[in-house]
Amino acid sequence: MPQANSELPRTLGELRASAFSENRLAGRSVKDELRANLICKLQRREELFPGIVGYEDSVVPQVVNAILSRHNFILLGLRGQAKTRLIRMLTTLFDAWLPYVAGCEIHDNPYLPICRRCKTLIAEKGEATPIGWLSADDRYVEKLATPDVTIADMIGDIDPIKAARRGQDISDELTVHYGLVPRANRGIFAINELPDLAGKIQVGLFNIMQEGDVQIKGYPVRLPLDLLLVFTANPEDYTARGKIITPLKDRIGSEIRTHYPASLEHGIEITKAEAWMDRQADVEVRVPHYISEIIEQLAFSAREDKRVDKRSGVSQRLPISVTENVVSNAERRAIQNGEAVAVPRVLDIYAAMPAITGKIELEYEGELKGGDAVSRELIRAAVGKVFNRYFEGVNMQPVVQWFDIGGNLKLEEDVNSADVARQLNGIQGLMEKTRALGLTANEPDAVRASAGEFILEGLYAHRKISRSEERGFTAEERKRPAQEPEENPRARQRRQFN
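User: That's the sequence. What structure does it adopt?
Assistant: Structure tokens below.
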């Protein structure tokens, strides 16, 4: 098959003599093409959707089944579950190039034209009919559903100005202004957030899904379109903003549920792939694995917290945005202090709270407490869980004892790494514990400072030590035993008299 656009046939006659013969293209639909190419990929054991992590055993097999069944399908899931990204990758199942009648708004098949213009053009020019080419990406049309979308936007309308200029009857097919759906002919048409589409517009999709054609404004214009229709929706939107009407839902072949990452490792992998980390700067950025774990655990903890609205969900964009903010804060500190290496610390996660509060919807209890307070508690809980993974069973008593006998340490956010590492070295037994994090004696000060602070934050999370804005890390206040109630004076006198 030709690989470059310049090598492709330019006329209908050249097309007939090429690999794109009438036998190959005339009777093959979009769904047949996707099915055939998917089968080839499965036979070669190729990765179907590179970059989609955590769906290998759940969502992807269901998408494969839908395509093999030639179904229109819908992806149902909360925000930030890679629904849109997944459907955009369906174009990788298309042929590299697809011929169409050049200049056609709906990309008519040269062998089976459906619009009046192309039928007339082919009848006039025959084998000299010009041919255009669509790449795989050109065959994908996406629309975000909103309540103001009209039938004209989706299907099309009669254009009276076009009719007047051409001197044609207004019911003539050549006066049609095509909407998004016909313009997606011979490709994929995707609608994001389907419940937001008005009910009467959803009704307009019936004919396409059942009969494969559209009708424009009640005029006798019928277009048997060749499409794969794919939808996405948030299940909670059925009641929050709208719903998918039952007859349309009945015509959708497969309903596939998406989900958030099932494991911390999958979440970290997604965040690393999506977060902007390759920065053009003189400062080298190193993100310790325990920092990545804390950020990802933060999202997992938020999804389980009763103060966070589970119907809204906690998007995977939260750890992505937090990671970018955390790296930026560490980068800023390194630049200000003239350091060559920027290593995020736990305090940088607290500094990234603007990337957290905007991405969680709170229940009533959370609203009473406030977004900042809930976010701080979520960070603290995440630090505590990650700390346990590295230091469960490790004796931290020498470090705690240093604070119990009066020691305290306040770490300022913008202090250079060398000063922070020197202060941490003064705490008995602290820095030797960093070996559990994989640190060696030759690590830069920024790495050692981050590790030492993580241990202190972990102890604080488990209430072994305390921390305040004024004094920093200090000893945890021990609960004093309750005093016995003071004896009644008259009772004491009676006891002394007796």
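The chain has two domains: 30-69+71-94+136-257, 264-475.
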